[in-house]
Prior knowledge:
26 helices, 8 strands
Amino acid sequence: MAMRRRKTSILWDHFSETEKEKAKCNYCKEVICFSSGSLGNLSRHLNRKHAGISIRPLERQPVITPSASATPETASASPNPGVINVDNENGVSHRARQSQTQLQSRSVQQKMDSFTERPLSQQKQSKIDQQLITMIAKEYHPLRLVEEPQFGKFVSLLCPAYRLPTRKTLSQNLLPQLFLKLEQEVKTKIENAPAICLTTDAWTSINNQSFIAVTAHYIDSESAQLCSNLLGCTEYNQSHSSDNMCAFLKDQISKWKIDQKVGAIVSDNAKNILSAVQKGNWRSIGCFAHLLNLVVQAALQNIEDTLKKVKSVVEFFKRSTQALYKLKEIQSQMDLPTLKLKQDVPTRWNSTYDMLDRILKIKNAVIATLAIVRNELSLNNEDWDILERILPILKIFLDITVEISSEKNVSLSKVIVYCRLLKFEISRFTEQLSDPQIPECVRKFVKKIQEEVQSRFNNLEKNFLYAEATIFDPRFKNKGFRDNMNFKSAFDKLKQKVASQQQRSFQIQTASSTSPVEEVVAVASISSSTSANASIWDAFDKEISSLVPENTVAAGIIELEKYLNEPPLKRTENPLIWWNARKCVYPILYRYMLKRLNLVATSVPCERTFSKAGMILTDKRSRLSASKASQLLFISSNM
């Protein structure tokens, strides 16, 4: 009789019984012993050696077990008679054994689903959940994305084992967890920062909700990089009075435990926020980009008539589809790039330049199109002349605004240099005003810019924050100042600060390290041992000691003088990398530098935060709560 295989357990889909209470694994061919009443050894073998195999019922195939008494005649009854291979051990034909092996391999063959549908580990599930929230926050997707059928099908095709969280789970559990985790990481960075500069501004959402944003900027001494973090964009329902704003800033500073680290607060030039900073006894820095915008807006009033004509032309092409199609057609005929006109936005800096620059690029196409569709809107030759003359001046303000608004580069040290270069460029345009062909409105435009620049930026070299930042920038030092007297005054005050600061530090270290009794004992022991341990070097050491500074006060001044005499760094190089390479050469100045080159020149980081907030709080997402919007903004800005 043929030996029959047990069929009471699904484990026999993966093992073959060889002897009594012994089975051979169909994968690794290892023989495992088992007791008659338990198959635990077989199960443990699969879990230990073949964890990827799913233990589940498979389609069973009949197993052919020929009898030991098989004869060559029996083998000859096979589909291919005449070919007889007999196993010398048990008399089983080779073809019958091969058929048995193939049937067994089919019975244990696994589908791909058994691997792709394996449950994910908790760590993998959490990692995918975190990436999902990050994608929603940074790409401005709605939270209901997880409930959209097509997105669910897409995720299922990529990873069938992953189960999307519900919108409620995403909003009430996963989002707050990632927010708290990221908040703790930012707190750790802020705690390690030697000095911090804050920027703040207010914004009103589409739901008429008021938000106040606060960002922090500091230098990472290890990576020699200027880092930025959003501390919060919080809903604020109280009036924006100076007292309320001051209390709000104090709460934020206390929450992040940076009371002793705030070097300055950067804001726009609104009176309430400037007064709030003053009441909080913080140093205030006005947004340089905002000041540049005020200068330009004041000067543009002198060419208001021409600007109105340009805006009317742009609005016409924005409203009329036929006119826009005709404009594109004429641009193609003239071999001009197919460009759309831009409309300026009062709240967007340099948008007027973008509008004028675009219309001048396709000037001929605009003239030809208006002559066909709306001739009364056409600009005359004087209007085009005005635009062409003022655009180079606006280009200067554009370049400065773009470069000064960077968060990754040192910015405050450039302000004095920019003011110097700006005055020089405007003086060149002023010299050209003697040309009688220049329109009168252009003359007034240039003069107004010159007056505004003089009144708003004339005293910046006397501001110690701007002056010290410029001195500590190895690209500029004294060369950044327009007036050498202002540099000398700032440099002398800086030497006094370094000396007094080092003297206080030296006194604190001395007081903490040595008590009066210890000093007396130390002096007595030294005097008593001097005669006993006299050396031939005593006279030489005494002579040299009069030349070497014995305290850190003189050392700080020496470092400052030595630093000033070094050749300047190239303008295109990073000053933070330069300082990081020389922090052992100038240890005293390096610590002071960390408090100056981290200062930013604009409140643009807050403006960028509000741009992100506008992408999150849209018409379709107007029901999103302010707290959830704040968490999404925090993740989007700090991930």
